[in-house]
Amino acid sequence: MTAHTVPRASSRATVRHATTGLAVGGLVGLVVGGIGGRLAMLLLRVTSSPLLTGTDTDDGFEIGRFTVGGTLNLAIAGALLGGVAGLVYAVSRGFLPARGRVVAWTAFCGTVGGAAFVHADGVDYLLLRPLWLAVATFTVLPAVGGLAIAAVVERRHARLRMPAVSVIATLRSTRAVRVVALLTFLAVTSLAGRSLVNEASVILQR
After folding, report:
1. What is the pLDDT of residues 143-194, one digit of tens each?
2. What 3-state DSSP class applies to 99?
């Protein structure tokens, strides 16, 4: 392999990792966020007061009303969020321990996603019932999405034997970089988890 082919191989590996993450994440986000999100909203509509029909949620969707536009918006939002999550996982997975990689990413998505969706002052958590189901639903959905993304990406990597991105492989070989990356990952997960717990505690005490 010449000096010119190394950058080309690295570029191809980078693109391959990125496109894999985007494609897997987008598809998972479409299914989990779009279809799963719509089913979750339907479930909460059934378990809540019928007077809530037509009320806008925190995300701008109407409770109890099925519209093509609303469903498409939900599906697109899910696909976009999933694509970003898939891209981040595909590129940075090498910094996580191989054995606990999928579990760690699932926990990360569950805590970060839950912290993003669960807010004590949100309309969803003032009107929807039961409250524990609303909190659990919007925490479990991003966790399931993260689990599916990590599992599918790992399976594709194993099947296709995809080479590591050279830049990431170089950084990963440096102990200090690995430690900083892992500590950052744990810190973000911990902070998001703490925020989620605090918000959920306020909500469930009502």
Report:
1. 999 999 999 999 887 776 655 554 455 555 566 777 888 889 999 999 999 9
2. coil
Q: Where are the alpha helices (DSSP H) in 55-174?
A: 68-92, 101-117, 124-127, 131-160, 166-172
Which residue type occupies 104? A
**103: CB partners within 8 A, 6+ apart:** none
Nearest-angstrom CA–CA distance, 125 and 50: 16
- CB atoms near residue 112 (< 10 Å): 21
Neighbours of 126 (CB within 10 A): 14
pLDDT tens across 61-117, in order? 666 666 777 778 888 999 999 999 999 998 888 888 888 899 999 999 999 999 998
pLDDT above 90 for 3: no
- CB-based contacts of 145: which residues, under 8 Å, 6+ apart? 28, 29, 32, 33, 36, 82, 85, 109, 113
Q: Helix or strand or coil: residue 7? A: helix
d(CA 120, CA 124): 9
Torsion angle of C-alpha atoms 183, 186, 188, 189, degrees rounded to 10: 180
SS3 62: strand
